[in-house]
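Hey, I was hoping to borrow your eyes for a little while. I've dropped the whole record in just underneath, so have a look:

——
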Amino acid sequence: QVQLVESGGGLVQGGGSLRLSCAASGSIFSINAMGWYRQAPGKQRELVAAVTSGGTTNYADSVKGRFTISRDNAKNTVYLQMNSLKPEDTAVYYCNAAVRSRASFPLRTYWGQGTQVTVSS
């Protein structure tokens, strides 16, 4: 089994910054893509940003230029630096990782428990 544990959420004023972290642990042979999704009340979960094992990144248009995703492969950890936060960024943020538990096993997607980010106006 694999566990993803997120941290770093909280309440911040508009224009402020937060840094989210997500550490993967358990039965891990390799991790392919890692990413962050968010879900606001009454809305569908959406991709915020993702990063491959090689460092290629992808961002939602709404966060480009404000958020930066990075990862530490040695620590199996992914980060999301969020700057210039807006009230519309308020949501529960979920970490996601595509993990191979053994060399011969297929990739399996795991999710964290979510961390609340609230941005006040």
Remarks:
- The mean pLDDT is 97.
- The CA atoms of residues 100 and 107 lie 5 Å apart.
